[in-house]
Design brief:
By secondary structure, the chain is an alpha/beta fold. It has 17 helices and 7 strands. The longest helix is centred in the first third of the chain and has 31 residues.
Length: 433
Amino acid sequence: MTSLPEPLSAKATDSFAYYTIKDRLPVILSKIADTVYRLKNTVREQHGEEGTKELKDIVGGISKLRNELQTDKSILTLEDDRSDVTTWNKYLEEQTTLHGYPPSWFKSAWLYVECYMYRRVQEAVEKCNVLKSLDVFEEQKQKAFLNSQGAILILLNYSMKVIKDLEKEEELDVEKLFRQFIQVALWGNKCDLSISAGFENSQTSCPLDQVETLKDHILIDDLKPLWTCLRASAPGRVDIVLDNAGFELVTDLCLAEILLSTKLASSIHFHAKAFPWFVSDVTKQDFDWTLQTLGRSNSIAMNFFVQRWKGRLSNKSWNLQVHDYWTLPFDYSEMKMRCSDLHEELSKSSLIVFKGDLNYRKLVGDRNWDTTTPFAESLHGFHPAPLCTLRALKADVQTGLAEGQAKAVKEKDAEWMVNGNWAVISFCDKTVQ
């Protein structure tokens, strides 16, 4: 059997991993410290001296972490009381034994150390008492959502018209609708606060126009086999492994609604993160806040969908699930071995939709694959059910391209792998029983 390619790492100084560890992550940590520090007056009013002390401890923990990262210190064990601590610390032992030296920021796998950074941020919060539920990214996520209101309203007004036409049994091209809403959800993934180092990155253009203007920027378009698979199993269960809060989450909710309203799906299972992750990833709190905020609007379309979606959550045609595996450092080929319950749950699905760049990196192991490696091969045995990935490229890993395609797109755009302007809809219908 051919050996696997090496994991991406900041050891390669000409890589996006190196740029991320050296430049992007320190900026994200500084922004977290600044954001938390600005809460001092509110925290003092609500929690007194205990809250003030905890706030200082969080800022101190973030500053210490930033220093460790910038000086390439060894990865440390976690010391809070969250249920995943043993798993993280055991993995650190495994990596130390495997390589013969402790992992460090610039020498170890990028996927591992970047995930570890966000877990260490959460550690600073977990050690608190009165601030234990603090989301250090909440302000940025909510601001990005509110600044995307124009685009959200356009999308919801259009979606409401589609739903009402379906209810009137108007003759609509269901495949065309499916393709359209898949692409809206795909390009919703351009709005990512971790890639912009936590600075504002909201959706301001019309999402429907964007689908047309960006068609030529889809490098892999597996919509045809994806549609065939979905029709063959309809109406079945569809799982959506969420990525970003804000505008992207709304595009995912609209896609889920269309799948149910066209009877392409009987139920939707959303998968969210267990704690704040990669700046803008969806937690249960973000999901709930989004519905609450839409419900406070005076927009007819927003209120229409909030009532509809609350009903779907109530009757279980929508389900929101949270699992620790999504915030662990493992790629998905390890899921069956390390977390058989989640793997078994996903195997009940007719289709799993993985949103975004980090999910893609975990699907393909974040390895230095040749870009022409077949997508199914790069999954390295992860086939719980038919799956697809909707991803705007923001990391220098990609599989499934045609011979010469990477060279051609690089001539058009030297930063094509990392700037979020190019995308893939990759599908694999292989399953392992």
